[in-house]
UniProtKB/TrEMBL annotation:
Keywords: DNA-binding, Transcription, Transcription regulation
GO molecular function, one term: DNA-binding transcription factor activity
PROSITE patterns with a match to the protein in the record: HTH_TETR_2
DNA-binding region coordinates: 38-57
Name of protein: TetR family transcriptional regulator
Pfam families hit by this protein: TetR_N
Domain of life: Bacteria
SUPFAM superfamilies for the chain: Homeodomain-like
Keyword hit for Cell inner membrane: no
Domain HTH tetR-type: 15-75
Length: 204
């Protein structure tokens, strides 16, 4: 975790307890939003005392940062694993990327908007680091199939597609409750992959 002043525990039992707290914190955030998010609510959900949570976190802001950091770590892991297991070919790699992005965000559509609304400067930087990491992961995964990209500057085109997919995914996760597009996350991933592939295989 990269939340300020927070040190992850080393012992397995302590890590399990921490995970229980973070899972409970995300549940409270998803159900009640930032308005109902308190250390007391997380303590009640997790079955722990308020004091036990304060021994791990300085307050709810640090707890929120820890929740966000965990989600971002999972995003990076999911994307990396999906790209490693993708079938050869530009279309397969792009499809695996969009599906992994959709999968990572689809289960947290009530959590991400709340986290984005209260993020600190450090939290914003951590978010940008994660998005940069998944962008680089896609660019690296496409490299063996770069000959399929017919744009004049293929690497720049791949970076553009990566940023477009990522930006669309983040925006959708942040706004789909208030501005629905009528698509499932699977549909969004498929359509986004089709658009990116069409752009990459179209001449300038």
């Amino acid at each position: 975790m990269s939340a300020p002043h927070f040190r992850p525990p080393q012992q397995a039992r302590s890590r399990e307890t921490l995970q229980k707290v973070l899972t409970s914190a995300e549940h409270v955030l998803a159900v009640g939003g930032i308005e109902d998010f308190t250390v007391a609510a997380v303590a009640e959900r997790s079955g722990m005392s308020v004091g036990a949570i304060y021994r791990r976190f300085s307050g709810k802001e640090q707890l929120l940062e820890a929740v966000k950091d965990q989600l971002l770590e999972q995003l990076e892991t999911d994307v990396s694993q999906a790209l490693r297991s993708a079938e050869p070919g530009l279309g397969s790699v792009i499809g695996a990327f969009t599906a992994a992005m959709a999968g990572a965000f689809s289960g947290h559509t009530r959590t991400f908007p709340a986290l984005l609304s209260v993020q600190s400067v450090g939290g914003a930087e951590r978010g940008l680091q994660a998005l940069d990491a998944v962008q680089r992961a896609l660019v690296d995964a496409v490299e063996p199939h770069l000959a399929e990209v017919v744009r004049t500057e293929p690497r720049a085109a791949v970076r553009f597609s990566a940023r477009t997919i990522i930006g669309s995914c983040v925006h959708r996760a942040a706004s789909c409750d208030t501005w629905p597009d009528g698509l499932t996350w699977t549909d969004w991933a498929s359509r986004s992959a089709e658009m990116a592939l069409a752009d990459l295989t179209s001449r300038d």
